[in-house]
Each structure stands twice: as structure tokens, then as C-alpha cells.
Amino acid sequence: MGLLTILKKMKHKEREMRLLMLGLDNAGKTTILKKFNGEDVSTISPTLGFNIKTLEHRGFKLNIWDVGGQKSLRSYWRNYFESTDGLVWVVDSADRLRLEDCRQELSSLLLEERLAGATLLVFANKQDLPGALSKDGIREALALDSIKTHHWCIIGCSAVTGENLLPGVDWLLDDIGARIFTAD
Amino acid sequence: MIMEAPVASDGVTSTGYRETVKIPDRLLRRDQDRLEEAVRRKEAKENLSVSEEKIDHFSSAFNTEKTVIEELLSVCSEADRDQLSRVLEEVTSRIQQLQKFLNDSTVFLTQYELRQAQASLQKLQCGLEEKRDEFIPKKKFAFRSRNIGANMSKVIKPIRDQPASSDSGSSDGNLGVVSVVYAEQCGFSNAHSQVLTKEADEIQQRDVLLSHLTNCKVRLLGSPSTLHIKHVRDSEILCGPVSSSVFVDQCTGCTLAVPCQQLRTHNTTDTQVYLHVTSRAIIEDCTGVGFAPFTWSYDGIDADFKLAGLDFERNNWNQVDDFNWLAAGTPSPNWTVIPALERKCTWE
Ligand SMILES: Nc1nc2c(ncn2[C@@H]2O[C@H](COP(=O)(O)OP(=O)(O)OP(=O)(O)O)[C@@H](O)[C@H]2O)c(=O)[nH]1
Ligand SMILES: [Mg+2]
């Protein structure tokens, strides 16, 4: 079996979406993924490579990619850009020290040609912590209002309590769905 | 576990047989379990051989394609402009396909194979970009500069106007946003040869920062949500249970004792960590980091373990992942277990 045959077999199915979840290390990406899937979140380790989960939601098949955010892994992020429908950018809202770092990483992602067509959902995570910056604080710190190249939305959430995870993903699906599935 | 197979799970496995049959539930369930176990074993066996086969297949397909791309890249020359752009296009699309092939194969690859494949792809991508730069430099430059320019004017300007903050930890003169934030940061900064203590109510469920300390003794008698330790030298830091992560960055010659859910250690040397960690510790760009089990205690620490949601029974202090050392089989030279006889056992 040659490479092309394999590729054909892996052809994109209908109503299937690919979501790429990125953010600095410790933002809570893996915790969000597991919480969304109803798994235990108390034993999660820092991600050494990535996790993939395929789940059904509202009749869509979601392929969610959660890639580790440690510095040494960030150069690999670009290996995952291909055919991404939705980019989920996760922010640790209590980590005020690294907001600038966070803004820079996000803004360079948005320059990537291969992410040009993707919808952006920003999760201002860890809202359950008393020291967390509000969703509007994060919006300002990341200069989201200057983004003109992507559809975007910011949602304050907590991966630990599960608050607002679903509304976030629903918004993302609606936005992507409106773009790719109504066309045909 | 690093990689998980895709599972189409919402946790809704249905067990509809119960309503219709009169055999006692308990028996039925046992029978069902037995059947399921048999199926599971059979599947596990099949999966194993299938996945070995798949890996072989993957490696040979991947390497063949990689060689083709390398050859294509090596024949690029400026002689024939038309041909050059065709070749570069061809290479671009082949790299994309190969990446997709890798992405779709990740479910059955091991972490090691994956990292290697990723590294190869990255090399190919760099090779391609080099060729592009070499032969078609102008176009790329124009594209980049326009985009960055647009962003800069909006974002960086207002930030530059702000006074620089005292923490010089992260990159270039940035940190405008961060100064908004400093007023509320809880912790200790810029101290030398001092004993520094915080009681529970000052740090409970807070994001706590210790930075630029030298030769200090720090006691945090409570349960922060996150603890950052940055630019600390020759100091001893003892802290109560941290509900999420402890960050250690640019520290040297320190002794730390802390329970937490995750430990993330960066750019740190010659430091001893007395650790209780319920998931795992990682190190990145570190050398000479020693680990031993957490032994410090204070009045009320049990309650703080509960508050932090940490399992007292579960301590993975000696399971450390080194992000700079992914060779399968050989242990990282960058960290060690502190020999039992050399461990500190009394704390003042
Ligand atoms: N309080 C609180 N803690 C959270 C929340 N989400 C994640 N955490 C904690 O933050 C830490 C990091 O979470 P992870 O999910 O491992 O972060 P990550 O983004 O996957 O990190 P990398 O894998 O290194 O990229 C863990 O200790 C989590 O328990 C949240 O909403 N609230
Ligand atoms: Mg993770």
C-alpha cells in the first residue's frame, strides 16, 4: 500500500471538525480536554507530546488536538496546523506574569498562513481562582480587538468546575459550521 | 500516558438487556463481564500485532517519502526558474501530505517515534524555507513585514509607554500589561539574607510569586493555588500544599520542599527538591536537580492537603520527565534521586 492510498483512505469525512488547542504550558489545555470528556482531572501531568481525542458532540465528530505548551515543544506546534478548522487558545487567567508572552505567541500564530481559515476561541481559563484576571482583562492584555483576520470570541471558563466549557465549544461549532457545512 | 487513541466516547454505553430478561441482574452482569473480558483480551492481542505492523509500515512509508523530498530539495537550482518553482511547489505539497500522514498515524506511534518523525519533518520544512529564501527572497520578506507591521502599531506602542517592571524575567522590554497586574501579586521579591514568612490567610488559593531572592529562608504556611519561584539563589523555600502547579525557573543552589499537583522546573541547576507530587514533575533545560520525598510539616498541613485537593497517599516524587531527554530507555543525566543518607530530615 503506497502513501497515496493510505492518504485516500484517511479522507475527510463529513461533519467532521479538527480543533487545535494551544496555549502556554500550565494554561489548562489537557484539563479542559479531559473535563469536556468527563474524565478525572486530578492526575494530569504536563504534556510531553500531545493528546488527541475524538468525540461526538451535536452530531459533529470533533478531533481535538491538545499539544503541550512547554517552551521546547512550541516549535512543534506548526506541525499540527494543517487543516485546522478551529483554534482554541487557552489562557491561565491567574498567570499575570506571562500575559505578554501569551500575547506574543498568539499573535505569531495568527500570522500563520495555514491557520488563516480557522476560527479562534480564546478560553480565559481558571476563572474559579480569586486572583484571576477577568475575561475583559484578558481580552485587553492579548489585544484581541485588533484581530481582524479571524473570527474570534473570548469566554471566561474554569476547567476545574467545567463552567462555560460547553458554551465555548458550541460557539466554535456554530461559527465553523456556518462556514464549512452550509456552503454545500 | 502520553498519547491516547481516539475514542468516540461520551460515556454513554448502553446496557439495554436488563429490562427484557428475568435472570437476576447480578448473574447477568457477571456473565456479561466475562464475555466482555474475553472480547477485550482478544482485541488487545490483535491490537498489539496490528500496531506493530502499522509502525513498521509507517516507518518505511515515511522514510521513503522523506528521501524523495530530500532529493527534490537537493536538485533545486537557479538555472531554470520555471522548474525551480515547480519543484518547490511539489516539495511543499509533499511535506504537507507527509505531515498529514504523520498526524493520522499518531494513534499507534510511540512517543519516541513521533518525536523523531516530527524532527525530520521540521528539517524538511526548514530545508524548503531555506531554498525559498535563497531563490525567492523578496516575496517572503514583503509578506512578513506587512503583517507584523500591522500588529505592532496597535499593540506594542501603548505598552512601551509604561514604566518597566521590576521583574526582568521574561523576554525583551515588554511587560506593559503586566504592571496592571503587579499591585495584586502576592509573594516576596528582591530580598537578601532574610527570613520571610507568610501565613495561611495571605496566600490561600492565591497565585504566589517569589523572585530575586538570595540567601533567604522562606516559609509559606498555607495553600496557594500556584507558586512561582524565579531567579532565586542559595535559598531554602518551604511551602504548604499547592493545588495546581509549582514553577521553578532560573534557580540555583536552592533547597525546596513542597507538595503540589504538578512541578514544572526550568533553567535550574544544583537544586534539591523535597517533593510531594500527585501527577508528575518535569524538568526543562536543567542540570543537577535532586529529588527526595517531601518531609517538612507544620500545624494544619493535613487540612491544607485537603484544601488543595491533593491526595496524601499519592506521591510520584521520583517520576520525572526531562523535556530535553527523550531517548527511550536511557535515564536523563540531568536529575537524580538524592541518596537516602544525604537527605535533609530536620527542618527548623
Ligand atoms: N484552579 C484551576 N486550576 C486549573 C484549571 N485548569 C487547569 N488547572 C490546573 O492547572 C495546572 C495545569 O493544567 P494542565 O491541563 O496540565 O495544563 P496544560 O495547558 O495542558 O499544560 P501543558 O501540557 O504543559 O501545555 C494543573 O495543575 C491543573 O489542575 C482551572 O480552571 N482552575
Ligand atoms: Mg497538557
UniProtKB/TrEMBL annotation, chain A:
Keywords: GTP-binding, Lipoprotein, Magnesium, Metal-binding, Myristate, Nucleotide-binding. One of its GO terms (cellular component) is centrosome. It comes from the Eukaryota. Pfam families: Arf. Mg(2+) binds at T30, T47. SUPFAM superfamilies: P-loop containing nucleoside triphosphate hydrolases. One of its GO terms (molecular function) is metal ion binding. It is found in: Cytoplasm, Cytoskeleton, Microtubule organizing center, Centrosome. This is ADP-ribosylation factor-like protein 2. It comes from Synaphobranchus kaupii (Kaup's arrowtooth eel).
From TrEMBL, chain B:
The keyword Signal does not apply. GO terms for molecular function: tubulin binding. Residues 81-134 form a coiled coil. Pfam families: TBCC, TBCC_N. Signal peptide: none annotated. InterPro entries: C-CAP_CF_C-like, CAP/MinC_C, CARP_motif, TBCC, TBCC_N, TBCC_N_sf, Tubulin-bd_cofactor_C_dom. PROSITE patterns: C_CAP_COFACTOR_C. Its main location: cytoplasm. Keywords: Acetylation, Chaperone, Coiled coil, Cytoplasm, Phosphoprotein. It comes from the Eukaryota. Tubulin-folding protein; involved in the final step of the tubulin folding pathway. This is Tubulin-specific chaperone C. It comes from Synaphobranchus kaupii.
